[in-house]
UniProtKB/TrEMBL annotation:
One of its GO terms (molecular function) is nucleic acid binding. It comes from the Bacteria. Gene3D superfamilies: 3.40.1350.10. Belongs to the UPF0102 family. This is UPF0102 protein CHA01nite_13300. Pfam families: UPF0102. InterPro entries: Restrct_endonuc-II-like, tRNA_endonuc-like_dom_sf, UPF0102_YraN-like. It comes from Chryseobacterium hagamense.
């Protein structure tokens, strides 16, 4: 597996652990709908939390969370709508980003950005 794939898998595992340690219940990982994939769907405080995990080995060009484009947001919103309908969920939805960055010594830094964007931001 390529290094960037390893980093992505590690970042998703780290994000899931971070969420669980902070009182979130993981409902689904890697939920797919059409061209979209939601990395983690969690629940906390009666909210459904859609989590996009972004990992980078450097922040020279951009921060990991800056890689969440309008197109990505539209796909996440569409997939979240499908999840809510498919599983008959009637809760409010929040969109978070968990950013994982490595340094030269391969130390990982995690940043959890809650309420990172809203569904109407994608328009």
């Amino acid at each position: 597996m390529a290094d960037h794939n390893d980093l992505g898998k590690t970042a998703e595992d780290l994000a899931a652990t971070h969420l669980q340690e902070n009182g979130y219940t993981i409902l689904v990982r890697n939920f797919r709908f059409q061209k979209a994939e939601i990395d983690i769907i969690a629940e906390k405080d009666h909210l459904i939390i859609i989590v996009e995990v972004k990992a980078r080995s450097t922040d020279v060009f951009m921060l990991p969370q800056e890689a969440v484009t309008k197109t990505k947001i539209k796909r996440l919103v569409s997939a979240a709508d499908h999840f809510m309908e498919e599983f008959n969920k009637d809760q409010e939805v929040r969109f978070d980003i968990i950013s994982v960055l490595t340094d030269r010594e391969k130390n990982l830094t995690i940043e959890h950005i809650t309420d990172a964007f809203e569904a109407f931001d994608a328009n």
